[in-house]
Amino acid sequence: MAGVLVQAVSQSPAKGVSEPPKKPANRREPPKPEPAAGKDNVAKAIVQELQAAGGSLSRSERGLARLIGTSKPTARRAIHGLAAAGIIALEATKAGTMLRLVA
């Protein structure tokens, strides 16, 4: 008959193993922008950002989405909807997408 080796398992942590460090309690996260739900609200937010910036804005789509507080696909749909309506003009640059108010 083969012998069976049984090892006891203890509830205490193994030697040399420490628990992961916890986040400092005094660390504050930056305030998140109010999310703009829906393509129409995002389009309004883009136009407001353009007006506040003097009519032109050069950012990546990801940066613009983060600024407005929405996802990149939603921001992209709103940008292209505004361009199709003739409200803004788009220009692709090395730094990102240049948006200009037309109307």
Task: Describe the structure in your own words.
The chain has 103 residues and is of the alpha+beta class. The model has no long low-confidence stretch (mean pLDDT 78). Helix 1 crosses helix 3 (72-85). The protein has helices spanning 39-52, 61-68, 72-85; strands at residues 56-59, 88-93, 96-101. The protein has a three-stranded antiparallel beta sheet. It has a domain at 39-101: Winged helix-like DNA-binding domain superfamily/Winged helix DNA-binding domain (Arc Repressor Mutant, subunit A).
Distance between the termini: 90 Å
Q: Which value, in Å, is the CA radius of gyration?
A: 26 Å
How would you state the average pLDDT, rounded?
Answer: 78
Count of extended strands: 3
Major sheet characteristics: 3 strands, antiparallel
What count of helical segments does DSSP give?
3
Structural class of the helices, strands and pairings? alpha+beta
CATH architecture of the domain at 39-101: Orthogonal Bundle
Unreliable residue runs: none
Portion of residues within helices = 25-40%
The CATH superfamily of the domain at 39-101 appears as: Winged helix-like DNA-binding domain superfamily/Winged helix DNA-binding domain
Order of helices and strands: HEHHEE
Query: Globular, elongated, flat, extended or rod-shaped: what is the shape?
Result: elongated
Find the CATH topology of the domain at 39-101: Arc Repressor Mutant, subunit A
At the first level of CATH, what is the class of the domain at 39-101?
Mainly Alpha
Name the strands of the widest sheet in spatial order. Answer: 1-3-2
Beta content comes to 15-25%
